[in-house]
Design brief:
The protein is mainly alpha-helical. It has one domain. It has 4 helices and no strands. The chain starts with a helix and ends with a helix.
Amino acid sequence: MSINLCASHHLILQVSSAQNLSLWVGIAIFIGGVLLMFSHRRSFDEALEQPLREQSIAFENRKYRRRVFVAGMITSLGIMISAIHWVEEPRAFASLILIIMGTLVGILGFAVLDMYSVGLQAIARTDEPDRKKLIEDYLKQRQQTQSQKDD
């Protein structure tokens, strides 16, 4: 009987420490999400300080909104993970875990979308002097090839 009591007491201590851990991890994630919001705002303001075309301004605005939305999801994830500390009913615990998993999938989905969008923007960005130089180099090589064929 004392072995079972000792084992159940050990299990209760582990659950209690896991709940305390979830509280502190959730608080840390919440603070991280808030700091991400401020960081994205600062980078958005820095991007707008540079002379940009209207298309680039629209891109920066969309990028800022996407990233702040994800930071908000991260912040709410921190709140949900902290809420595990107070949940005792198994159904509520399972529901909360499912919501947390769904939020994680959403965050990953938006992160992939943002990565894809920023990558496309980087590919589409043209630097006129470099572009003209590439065209001139291509034309020179083409003329050299044509002159070698004629000889």
